[in-house]
Structures are given as C-alpha cells and as structure tokens.
Amino acid sequence: MFPENAQSSAPKKRKVSEPEVIVLETTPSPAPKKRKQSSPGHQSKSKTLKRKPLPPPPKECIICCEEYPVGSFPESPHLPNGKCKSSVCRACFEQHLENEVETKRWNAVGCPECSQGLEEPEMRQLALQSTYEQWLDKAAKSYNEATEDFRSCPSATCNWGCIFSTKADGNIFTCQLCSIRYCVVCEVIMHEDETCEAYQKRRETQDTAEEERRSETYLKKISKPCPSAE
C-alpha cells in the first residue's frame, strides 16, 4: 500500500510552450507595363531645349569712340523719324546737353546726332537733373522777359525777376532774393540820398570831364612837337 501523500510528492511535469509562428503578408508587386510600340508613320514627341539668346555685341559711341553695352545708349528721341540711330552713349549725351544749355538759348538746345531741337519731355528724360532745371530757368526767364512790365534783377549772380510797374511800385526795384535796390529811371544801382535829377547831372559832368581827359591823353599820344617851335 502507498502512503496517502505519495501522489502529491511525485514530481510535476513542465509544460513546454509551443513556438510562436509569425506570418508576414506580402502584397504582390504590379506587373511591369508593356511599352506601346509606335505604329508605322507615328513619330515620337521629343522635348526640345530652348537656349537663351546671346546678348547683343557692344556698341561704339560716335562721340567718345568707346564701346559700351547697348543698355548704356539712351533711346533717341527722334528714332521714329529715322534721323537718329541712338549712337551716343548716355555720358556723352548728358555732357552735350549741359554744354548746349550753358552756351545757347533754351529753344536752341538740339540733339547731338541730328541737331533737331529737344522739347521738355525729352530734356526731362535725357538731361541731368541740374541741366534740366537750368534749362527750365532759361525758358521761364525768356518767357517773362517777353512779358510787359517784367524786370530781372540787375545783379549778374542773381536770376530773380518779377512783374514790376512804376505806377504801382515806384521807381525803385528791390530784388526779393538778393535785396539789391535798382533805379528804373536811371537804369543803375540805386543812388542813395540823391535824386534822379541830381544823379543824372553829376553823371553828365563826370562823363564830360572823363571824355575831355581821354581826348587829351589821346592827343598827346599821337601828336608831335612842331619843328618850327624849336
């Protein structure tokens, strides 16, 4: 006979766990597409590469004879007329207009290629700002001088002027820019503390004395002593 606890004292068997099996699902890759064979007479379209146009060659200025890029030449104001070919560089164009404004009347400033007169829009576009302003001053002064009762300042360094009437403003012109006083009756700088009649009489006496002095000097220069007086 076995003891009562014989069954409980028997060794227990371990359960061995079964290995896990991992199943990977894969999606089938699509079958490669078959190329369509072009039918006879059908031409395949090929991409053409567009090349950038080459920049134009440099251009020679007809005044300084230097070569510059085409962008350095301003568009000629008379190009539609076929008289100009825009062959003067911007630096020479600006220098030409500066010389023209300084030496000529405002309405005689011309193009360096065809000498045709330039109008206000062309001067504003082609000339330097200082040259353009000087040209405007000349044009305004010329217009004002043609207007009745307009007077300019007599000072050589002043460009101011205004409408002046002797009936309303008297005989003394006062410049509002340089403050010079000018007698419009005697046409001289204002003779302070002296009336116009006294000034004119004094000038007449001075002019007569000066004329006599000049005549005497001239006679002494060209005359010779008489030989019979020796």
Summarize the structure.
This protein is α+β, with helices and mostly antiparallel strands and 230 residues long.
Q: Beta-strand level of the residues, as a percent range?
A: 5-15%
Q: Report the strand count.
A: 7
Shape, principal axes of CA atoms: elongated
Helix content: 25-40%
Protein name: RBR-type E3 ubiquitin transferase
Region (Disordered): 1-54
EC number: 2.3.2.31
Biased composition (Polar residues): 1-10
Task: Describe the protein.
- By secondary structure, the protein is of the alpha+beta class.
- Among the domains are: about 55-145, Zinc/RING finger domain, C3HC4 (zinc finger) (Herpes Virus-1); about 150-195.
- It has helices at about 90-105, 120-125, 130-145, 165-170, 195-220; strands at about 60, 65-70, 150, 160-165, 170-175, 180-185, 190.
- Helix 1 (about 90-105) runs parallel beside helix 3.
- The longest helix is centred in the last third of the chain and has 27 residues, at about 195-220.
- One of its GO terms (molecular function) is zinc ion binding.
- This is RBR-type E3 ubiquitin transferase.
- It catalyses: [E2 ubiquitin-conjugating enzyme]-S-ubiquitinyl-L-cysteine + [acceptor protein]-L-lysine = [E2 ubiquitin-conjugating enzyme]-L-cysteine + [acceptor protein]-N(6)-ubiquitinyl-L-lysine.
- Its EC number is 2.3.2.31.
